[in-house]
Design goal:
The protein is an alpha/beta fold. Helix content is 39%, strand content 18%. The protein has 2 domains: 182 residues, 3-Layer(aba) Sandwich (Rossmann fold), CATH 3.40.50; 107 residues.
């Protein structure tokens, strides 16, 4: 019997790891990305523009599950507003054409600043440009479900860390290598406010679980399991896992405007600075109840993360 085909849009910090996990489980896997760089042995790659619905439909022909793990080409408000809706429309069209379940990787931007832990029922009230893009995307998925019969499930994750996290993340690979060498990490805002972090392997496992779960999850949004700790505590745990101090330097929020003149990425962080200046936590109990066994505690996540950095061939 031919294994089902899983098509993953995006090969960044989540998509590539997801493709390799699915392939290791015996599924046929096709990755759709901008370039033709290989993802892994036995994994097909289709290069093209995911904003082109004709291309996206052809790239997903025969798929049982389609995963949307793709981000716009640059982390700027203008790029998100231009590219994200077009990508979404094309991927919705592709999933509908293939009669495939659409599994969506989302983030927490759409909520905006709120009091208390976020639940899946928390209204989406973001007013910043990237947040509004995410709000519109959630609304579009629901319209496609009601009006076009789209079978989708979405998972929202906190800021990424762990094996595979890219350098766009605050605790990306370069920062982790620095911690492993005894250097300090740079943080923003208030490093002693509790925060919801997304451990990359948990997010990847969660997406894969969405792809094979029963139909009761369709039309729902879940919060992926979160490692909830202060940024300073997370850095300390990562350092300790490597036998290093795990110290942090903190860039206060008010300085981002000036620093952004030299590092544009810091200017873009001002939109979501509220996440780093106050408690920003999630209620992930719905996911944990539906998918028990997925979710890594802080000590294990820190140990696995630093082992992947210091022993990349292991």
């Amino acid at each position: 019997m031919t294994p089902p085909l899983h098509v993953v849009f995006g090969a960044g910090q989540i998509g590539a790891s997801l493709a390799r996990l699915l392939h290791s489980r015996g599924d046929r896997v096709r990755v759709v990305r901008r370039g033709d760089k290989p993802v892994g042995a036995g994994i097909e790659v289709r290069a093209g523009d995911a904003r082109d619905a004709t291309f996206a439909i052809a790239a997903t022909a025969g798929a049982s599950v389609v995963y949307h793990c793709m981000n716009p080409s640059a982390y700027t408000a203008a790029t998100w507003e231009a590219e994200f809706p077009a990508q979404g429309e094309a991927i919705i069209a592709a999933a509908l054409a293939a009669n495939a379940r659409l599994v969506v990787l989302d983030n927490l931007y759409g909520y905006g600043p709120v009091e208390g832990a976020l639940t899946e029922a928390t209204p989406l009230g973001a007013t910043g440009p990237k947040g509004r893009v995410r709000v519109a995307w959630a609304e579009r998925l629901e319209r496609a479900r009601r009006e076009q019969g789209l079978r989708y499930v979405a998972g929202r994750a906190g800021d990424f860390f762990g094996p595979g996290a890219g350098d766009q993340s605050m605790l990306g690979a370069n920062t982790l290598r620095g911690l492993a060498a005894g250097k300090s990490a740079w943080l923003v805002g208030d490093a002693d406010q509790p925060h919801a972090f997304g451990y990359v392997p948990d997010v990847v496992e969660g997406l894969a679980a969405f792809g094979t779960a029963d139909a009761d999850i369709e039309g729902r949004t879940f919060h992926f399991p979160a490692v909830q700790a202060t940024p300073r505590a997370l850095v300390a745990a990562l350092g300790a896992a490597a036998g290093k101090p795990g110290s942090a330097n903190v860039l206060p929020g008010w300085s981002l405007g000036v620093a952004g003149l030299f590092m544009p990425i810091l200017r873009e962080l001002r939109e979501t600075l509220y996440q780093w200046e106050r408690p920003f936590l999630v209620d992930d109990s719905a996911f944990r109840a539906r998918f028990p066994g997925i979710g890594t505690n802080l000590p294990d996540a820190a140990r696995q993360t630093m082992a992947a950095i210091t022993q990349p061939s292991a």
